[in-house]
Amino acid sequence: MTSEVDRARRTSTGIEILLVLLLSLGASAVYAVVSLIAKLSAGPLSASKATLNPSQSPRPYLDLTYQLLWIFFALVPVLLALYLLDSQRSSLGRPLYRPGFDTGWGVGLAAVIGVPGLLLVYLAAQLGLNAQIVPAALQPVWWAVPVLVLKAVENAVLEEVIVVGYLVTRLRASLEWRTVSIIAASAVLRGSYHLYQGFGAFIGNAVMGVIFALFFLRYRRVMPLIVAHSLLDIVAFVGYTLLPESWLSWL
Q1: Which 3 state secondary structure label does DSSP give 1?
Q2: Domain enclosing residue 115, as ranges
Q3: Residues 141, 60: contact at Cβ < 8 Å?
Q4: Total structural domains in the chain?
Q5: What is the structure's pLDDT at 5?
Q6: Which of 51, 114, 202, 220 has its CA 20 to 30 A from that of 34?
């Protein structure tokens, strides 16, 4: 009887994980695979382009409305994941923010990942393993930088809460997966929804996924990962927008 209850619980948890992912980053992974296939079938991957933050309308304030709505609705799966975790929510870290620990580790992780990441982007570009990456393509309007900062934070919260906090917690506590399998699942998922940028992006983000999953399993805190991810994306998005184009030709 106990085994039947346990199997039912595992099945229910598996369905829950699948639905949460299909409503969020799992869906992004599917679209990323299709996008990669489309790029490869159209010609050399290096000749294609991957635009991360495009403008949604030539009308500036309509564009702003679309951008803010996208940010808001992208975070709804995060609320769903937190709601479903319920009693396990504390495993993401209490208190929610510890300034010294979270900021210190966040900056450190960003540095550890950011510098090798830039080298990997350059190498992937030289080998033709990535599309031409355009981190931001908003109109030159006053709200462009604030929106890019919000998008960076949104990306960080969405990915770290779901791909690390939610997924790792569910796989470990509810499904009792082995540590190696948990890390692999989180890392492969993170890499897969970046495939629209190319194979180099998949590898780089998968490595980042391994590091972040290991950190979370060790310290049981997701906030340092959000800080690190936010910093990486802010530098990429805002830097691409503000720096001279001649500085960015290597991308």
Answers
A1: coil
A2: 2-248
A3: yes
A4: 1
A5: 76
A6: 114
| Both tokens assigned to 39 | 């790029």
Cα–Cα dist 85/149, whole Å: 28
Reported confidence tier of residue 158, pLDDT bands at 50, 70, 90 = very high
DSSP alpha helix (H) spans, the chain: 2-22, 25-42, 60-74, 76-85, 99-127, 144-159, 167-169, 179-192, 199-219, 223-242
Residue appearing with tokens 């503000």: 242
Q: Per-residue pLDDT averaged across 42-58, rounded?
A: 94
Separation CA 63–CA 213 (nearest Å):
35
Q: How much is the pLDDT for 89?
A: 64
Q: pLDDT above 70 covers what percent of the chain?
A: 95
What does pTM read for this prediction?
0.93
Q: Please tell me the distance from the alpha carbon of residue 166 to that of residue 17, in angstroms, as a whole number.
A: 9
